[in-house]
Amino acid sequence: MERLVELSDAEVRIDFLLNSKCRATVRLRSLCATTPVAYKIQTSSPHKFLVNPPTGLISPLSFATFQIILRPQNQLPPTFPRSPSDRFLIKTAPFASDSPYPTHPDSLASWFSSLPLDSTQDFKLKVAFVGPFLLRHAVSCGDADTVKNILKRQKAILSDLTQRDAESLLRVATGLDNSEVVVNLLLEAGLKIGARVTAGGVGFYQVDPRGNIKCAQLLVESGADKDAKSKDGRTALYRAAANGDRRMVEMLIDIGANPTIPDDRGRSAMDAARDKGHEEVVGNFTMWRTSTNGRKTW
């Protein structure tokens, strides 16, 4: 038997939220030029899902859509994004115009029950749980594989985030033990980095305490402002100098951060190092300022 219908996708992706009905739409396209095609949707998890409509007819070479509705769930899916225990079976068959069965949904269900087992053409539809809620959860757990799989399935998920949500997600990612990996995944997938994000204390200000130089470099390469000030009026270089973090100081200088930018009290990163007694950092500032080996000079 030639194929009767074509699925819009072999996997239905549901934006998951706790304690909320979550919906996804699936489209069926008829490949039959002369006869209507009947369809019936079955699920392995009827306690979790509703289908609307569960049966229907598709006119020749036309389209039909149905909604998959996830009942409100008070727990996260056991596995995501793919949920192997959840799946749908789409049964299809040509529907003769002289069929004695009416086209009412209940009647179509009875019609399918009357068909021989080998007379239907069946398709499997997998289930994936995605969306910002699960992405944030995966990021907060440092689960790089799950983050990667959600981003792969929802290419526009990051570009659709508000600036505040992007800022919050980046703040969570930069605080992880494996922040370099997760931050890189987010940035490569298109997480927006702007002046408001870095000025709000997301960029370098979160990675300073860990001295995560690679993470800071990734942020700079993606547009983070190396001289942005946090809410206390201090730059990332000021904070690194005050902490005596020579590795971070050196990295920031090498990418062009300016140690002479004052905070709200008129104190610069050089002053901060001196005030805290970090003589090695002070000495390095002096060396870099007078250097002629290609490093930043002021």
From TrEMBL:
Record domain MSP: where: 2-130
The keyword Protein transport appears for this protein: no
Signal peptide: none
Top-level taxon of the source organism: Eukaryota
InterPro entries: Ankyrin_rpt, Ankyrin_rpt-contain_sf, Ig-like_fold, MSP_dom, PapD-like_sf
Record's keyword terms, sorted: ANK repeat, Repeat
Pfam families in UniProt: Ank_2, Motile_Sperm
Entry keyword Oxidoreductase: no
ANK repeats (start-end): 232-264
Protein name (record): MSP domain-containing protein
